[in-house]
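WARN retry 2 of 3 for item q-0093 after timeout on previous attempt; input resubmitted unchanged.
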Amino acid sequence: MRPPEFWNADAGGRDSAPLVRALLTPVSWAYAWAAANRMRSTVARHAPVPVICVGNLTVGGAGKTPVARAIRARLGAGAHTLSRGYGGRISGPLRVTGDMSALEVGDEPLLHASDGPAWIARDRLAGALAAANAGAHAIIMDDGFQNPALAKDLSLLVVDPAFGIGNGQVFPAGPLRERLASGLARADAAILLYNMDAGAEELDWLDSFDKPILRASIAPMQDTPRGKFVAFAGLARPEKFFDTLAALGVELEDAAPYPDHHPYSEDDLTFLMTLADERGAKLITTEKDAARLNPVWRARVEVLPVTARFQDEAALDALLAPIQSRMT
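OK item q-0093 returned
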């Protein structure tokens, strides 16, 4: 699904949907209560190796996967990644390999598997134990900040500064997965992930956050693609990808947004290729979207790989130092 307009902080007029928000507010109270109760009543268990959680406060993408991949690269070969496997039918625990499909394990785990050992498990504790038994010296969780079953040694909140916390309301009246104060209290640091150049502005809702705040930006890992392109992306906010292409100077003829984790059908891809052919262009998409394409279509679509580049790498290293000291 696409996030409703009234989730945005600057939504006004008809887009602010005051009646809808009023009707959903009691539901959001119940959702927030259930989340808080789950946190209070669940006894977290520790894995035998350190666990880093890369999470966020809101429903939808904030850039967790690029951050998790960047952190894994700093920790080295002893780090394994662990994710739920959203969109895949296998519950795990399972080690992901490149010959699996997104329908089996989800799209993000396939990206992690291209970097090294990666696991999926809806039971995060079971997944962490499986990774540790297989030789992991540290585990990086992609998402799972609101999952209390597995104890975290370092919890990092990834924030999209352009969206922030939206209207500041808990789901479904807003995008928050839990009450803001509760989430911030459990975090060890926040990472503001900008869509290209890292900014310097502060976010008012982080004024009371007294932990480290790091800044990073999405950066391409290859030269700017040349020629005309039709872009498509199935992300929580696909416009971020289109904005990245525009900022790089890519000649965009058209852009087609799809819902997050959209399973592309043959009709979808035929439509996109026809659209590109009509404009004398090629198709381009994200790594995450490419992971959901079959090999035949993947070969016909250009991909723009990106990474999270930190403004202050020494600050990131300081956060990771206690984890690295425990990796044996």
